[in-house]
Each structure stands twice: as C-alpha cells, then as structure tokens.
Amino acid sequence: GTEAGLACYEAGGWRAWGRSDGLPHPVILSLEVSPRTGDLWIGTMGGLARFSGGRIEAFTQLSRGLPNDFVNDVECDPDEDQVWAATAMGASRFDLRTGEWTIFTEQNTPMAEPWTYSVAIGRGLVYVGAWGGGVLEHAKGTGRWREYRDPDKEMEIDLLPDDGPV
Fold first, then answer.
1. CA 146 → CA 30, 83, 116, 130, 158, distances in Å?
2. Most buried residue, 14, 25, 121, 164, by CB count within 10 Å?
C-alpha cells in the first residue's frame, strides 16, 4: 500500500492499481488479507476496498454504508464472516453474509470521541484504539464493551508514566 495506490511485486516486476482500477482513493492506510476468503481488504483515505478475483469493490460513506471514508485500519475476523474498520467516525463491522454495517461510536460504546485508529481481533475479543478512549475491548459473545483508559478519565494527552495508557 502506497500513497499512489496498491502495488504488487511478482515475476520480477511491479503491477499497480489506482483510482482507474476502482480504488476509492490512492492513499492506502492499511491492508489485511482475510484468512477465510483470501480477499485483500484495503483501507484508504477515501473509503474501504476489497480486492478479490482481480476486481476492486469500493465501500464508501455515500455508496455502501461505511460510517466514514477515512479508514485508518481494517481487520478481518478469522472466526466469522466479518470485517472491522477503524474510521474517523467510529469503528464499524461489516457482515459479509448480510452486507450490513454495525457502527460503534460514543453513542453506543465507552469511547469519548468517534475517531478510531486501530482494530485487532483474537480469542473472542475485538480491540479498538480510540481517540480519548484508550483501548476498548469488545466481547464478541456478549457484545459488551470494556475500556482501558486513563485512570482519571480525562481526555487529554498524558505524559506521566503512571497515569494509564498514554
């Protein structure tokens, strides 16, 4: 992933894909290969894309229900047909079977602001890095959220070593 699109080195040469090939934006912020399907998911500054079977399918805020087009991170669930995206307007979960998005913001999670930076999945849990919210843990089985945040719950930049996640 580059600031000028997707590039792949194979058979001694480079092949590139950009907007003309279906990418929603040339600046790529994250890449993830689905362990279930082998599809490549691409987080960009202009939406999310799936590269599958030689084709690029774009998911944007206006066309496909993505909560925001600025996708900082994308993570495929290894156990379920779901793709998670960390966007500038919350974390979102895309169900590959139904084609529906579930959006997580400060309205339905402990996060203080909807800007999310990263997603990680493992052992039945989803972790989301959120601005002013530290790290949020989502239990897939119960749907409950738990926060790991600055102990004083203030949403400022902390530089003290004993004041929780920096």
1. 25, 20, 15, 12, 20
2. 25
